[in-house]
Amino acid sequence: MSFSLYDTPLNSRLLIGSALYPSPDIMKKAILASQSQVITLSLKRQNPHAFAKQQIWQYIQEIITLNRGYLLPNTAGCKTAKEAITLAEMSRELFHTDWIKLEVIGDDYNLQPDPIELLIAAEQLIKLGFKVLPYCTDDLVLCQRLYDLGCEVIMPWASPIGTGKGLMNPYNLATIRSRLPDATLILDAGIGKPSDACMAMEMGYDGVLLNSAIALADNPVQMAQAFSLAVSAGEHAYLAGIMPQRPTAHPSTPTLDSPFWHQHK
Amino acid sequence: MTQLLNVRINGERHQFPAGINLQDALFHYCDTLSSQRFAVALNQQFTSKINYPITVLHDGDSIDILLPIQGG
């Protein structure tokens, strides 16, 4: 089934981060194995004299060329709307994209988004012409507010960034899906294993974004392949129509004409 | 005697002659900058590349040069 983000058609519903890999070479191989076309990255104050020797940016550019992909800059590390807006403007100029993964963090330990600063930043960035992909908690009201502001794509967390805890609150996530049928929902953060991604897709989520689950795996390239398959499996399952859960057992094998020793006296 | 400006670049103190613009200051700081992708904030405000030549620095200004990094 076709998939797009802000009218940009994509071949994969898996979005992937570029951080934490054992090496740039493994990063490249894993991202290509994932078949993801959207790669997140960021900006940081660095010494340009030292940067000339770094290969990461060259690797990311190669990946984008090979998979005909797109960059999704983030505002990681920002704690206020002002910081996030400034970083977003810098990202747009540097990466030549209007897409911005908006992160405004409210807690240094669980990296939970600050909902108030997030809304302020989202509103201002939309006015500045950005295509905002806000990272938020699994709060229905917050997601609704973001959608009402004009965020066509919303990215609620599964659990705190990098924890690998999977879907902490499937009920909330399912409620968000049900109540925002027209939003593009990407589950972001806290995914630990491919079945987490599959579960999100089975719920009807439009995609997943993850980084640590692949980068920190024993074999990131193989894990990237696993996630690609999991996202596809979940999507197919959702489209196929999952059977409803039933309160009592229903035998799969017909009971008619059972052998005499199974019959009641 | 040429007046000198005290300007911070990425937190480090540098001195430039008064009247220098942002473009000249950046490339005086790092002559390979033009071959890299970077973005600049002047006093925590984004400054677009097209404005570098017309942005005159003042004493006490703070320049942040940001470059791409990996991210999730």
Describe this entry's structure for a reader.
The complex is a heterodimer of chains A (265) and B (72). Chain A is an alpha/beta fold. Chain A is built from ten helices and ten strands. In chain A, strand 3, helix 1 and strand 4 form a beta-alpha-beta unit. The model of chain A has no long low-confidence stretch (mean pLDDT 94). With 72 residues, chain B is mostly beta strands. Chains A and B meet through strand 4, helix 2, helix 3 and helix 4 of A and strand 3 and strand 5 of B.
Gyration radius of chain A, rounded: 21 Å
In the sheet with the most strands of chain A, the strands line up as: 5-4-3-10-9-8-7-6
| Main sheet specs of chain B | 5 strands, mixed
Uncertain regions spanning at least 5 consecutive residues of chain A: none
The fraction of residues assigned to DSSP E strands of chain A is 15-25%
Mean pLDDT of chain B: 93
Helix content of chain A: 40-55%
Please describe the topology of this protein.
The complex is a heterodimer of chains A (265) and B (72).
Chain A: E1 3-5, E2 8-10, E3 14-17, H1 24-34, E4 38-45, H2 48-51, H3 56-66, E5 70-73, H4 81-95, E6 99-102, H5 115-127, E7 131-136, H6 140-149, E8 153-156, H7 170-179, E9 184-188, H8 194-202, E10 207-210, H9 212-215, H10 220-240
Parallel strand pairs in A: 3-4, 3-10, 4-5, 6-7, 7-8, 8-9, 9-10
Antiparallel strand pairs in A: 1-2
Chain B: E1 4-9, E2 12-17, H1 22-29, E3 39-42, E4 45-47, E5 62-70
Parallel strand pairs in B: 1-5
Antiparallel strand pairs in B: 1-2, 3-4, 3-5
